[in-house]
Amino acid sequence: MIEITFLGGGGGRFVTITQARATGGFFIRTSKNIYVDPGPGALVRAWRYKIDPRKIDVLFISHRHTDHCNDAEVMVEGMTMGVTKKRGVLIGSRSVVYGDEDHTPAVSKYHLDALEEVHAPNPGDRFRIGEDEMIITPSIHSDPTTIGFRLKTRFGDVSYIPDTQYFDELKKWHSGARVLIAAVTRPRDMRIPYHLCTEDIVYMLKDMKEKPEILLMTHAGMKMHFANPYKEAKFIETVTGVKTYVAKEGFRVTIGKEITVRTLRPARFV
Ligand SMILES: [Zn+2]
Questions:
Q1: Second label for 190, Cα 20 to 30 Å away, from 5, 11, 49, 126?
Q2: Which value, to the nearest 10 degrees, does the dihedral of the CA atoms of residues 53, 72, 171, 213 take?
Q3: How far is CA 38 from CA 69, 76, 124, 157, 267, in A?
Q4: Residues in CB range of 76: below 8 A, 6 or more apart
Q5: Which intervals hold domain Metallo-beta-lactamase (predicted)?
Q6: 147 C-alpha vs ligand 1 centroid, how far in Å?
Q7: pLDDT (tens digit, 0 to 9) for every residue of the chain, 270 residues total?
Q8: What domains are there in the chain, each with its CATH number?
Q9: Rounded CA gap, 186 and 172, in Å?
Q10: 256 C-alpha vs ligand 1 centroid, how far in Å?
């Protein structure tokens, strides 16, 4: 069985600043523990759902924008038992690991040195993660080094499309995934450069050879937040026939023979 727990479903500057929706990324419990895109609040939100950063095996960071990587270093401190133990794997975009002309690396040398492995892969690269295999996928985003993934597991593939504009190849990389997580930032009629909107997802799904069993919309920006992401999800589902959910803090998807979803109650101690 695989469990995906969301520590937020928001993204973009204004949702992040206001925390109109949480921005903590998501956690996959499969044969290893994989934390994805620890945006602002990731550490605090994780503990609310009893996710212990000391148990993270792999930290995946799609790109070096604050809403995806703000809590990266503190997660590395968790993974390495407070930087006392060489442990854990970081898979991040080149901008996360090395920085770029506009950004310093998201993780300092001090933190990188504490990890067992650090990778800044290219699309098509593959990693063995416990019993699963991760294939790195491409994106076209304002951070040109942005990466996504497709995780091949014995319960089917879990695919992640992070911030990107639509491009035809996306379909090929993610066709046949059982669970598709996608950063759908904008609602209908409100496309912006370098991000997906509702129409992009509809267009992609309609044309996909093998459609996913479920779509999980995440990274709702402020315009999506006000347009009502549940309405957008319903629209996507009606037009494409793909069961569509809106990710939010505490939303858990369990993937076994069947796929089930529920919203967890946060622990009371925080
Ligand atoms: Zn971004």
A1: 5
A2: 20
A3: 5, 11, 23, 22, 19
A4: 59, 83, 88, 90, 107, 111, 112, 114, 115
A5: 33-219
A6: 11
A7: 999 999 999 999 999 999 999 999 999 999 999 999 999 999 999 999 999 999 999 999 999 999 999 999 999 999 999 999 999 999 999 999 999 988 999 999 999 999 999 999 999 999 999 999 999 999 999 999 999 999 999 999 999 999 999 999 999 999 999 999 999 999 998 888 899 999 999 999 999 999 999 999 999 999 999 999 999 999 999 999 999 999 999 999 999 999 999 999 998 765
A8: 2-261 (3.60.15.10)
A9: 23
A10: 31
Alpha carbon distance 149, 185 (integer Å) = 18
Quote the ligand 1 centre to 258 CA distance (angstroms). Answer: 32
Distance 202 CA to ligand 1 centre (A): 21
